[in-house]
Amino acid sequence: MKNKKILLSVLLVMLTLSLMGCTSRSTGLSILSSGDIEKDGMHFKYSYFNGSKEKIFELEEDSEIGINYNIKVVKGTLSIVILDKEELTILEKKFTKDDQGSLSINLEKGQYILKVKSDSSKGKFDVRYVELQ
Predict the structure, then answer these.
(1) What is the residue range of the signal peptide feature (predicted)?
(2) What is the spatial distance between Cα 57 and Cα 48, in angstroms, rounded to a whole number?
(3) Average pLDDT over all residues of the chain
């Protein structure tokens, strides 16, 4: 009976993690990092990050999207990327120093990926998206 409860608990955790993976994804290596991927974006602080963090979002209709960002780059390069469902790059902005601001882009109805990718960087970022219309 005890083994069945443990097995059920493990299966529930695995199911929950697999469902979470449907809307976000992390790849690569990060050291001494903390942060989260949330409903409207992501924020992370790290001593070393080489890889990417992704958030999948869907638009129910054609919309203008605002990408608000606060980036701190101590070393390396960080990029904000918007990909379509075929993972083709629609927008990319690279950072090699601290920056704060916003970008806007008109997108058609469909599924997109908000991606923050790092090339051996140290720093932190907060990136959010919002429908503007």
Answers:
(1) 1-21
(2) 27
(3) 82
Structural domain of 63: 24-131
Contact between 42 and 110 (Cβ < 8 Å): no
Helix or strand holding residue 86 (H, E): none
Residue 32 counted as domain residue? yes
On whether residue 18 sits in a domain, the answer given is no
Q: What are phi and psi of 16, to 5 degrees?
A: -60, -45
Alpha helices in 1-133 (DSSP H): 2-20
Q: How many domains does the chain have?
A: 1
Q: What is the CATH number of the domain that holds 40?
A: 2.60.120.260
**pLDDT tens digits along 62-119:** 999 999 999 999 999 999 999 998 999 999 999 999 999 999 999 999 999 999 999 8
Give the pTM. 0.76
For residue 55, the SS3 value is strand
List the one residue out of 120, 23, 131, 12 whose CA is nearest residue 75: 120
Q: Is residue 36 part of a domain?
A: yes
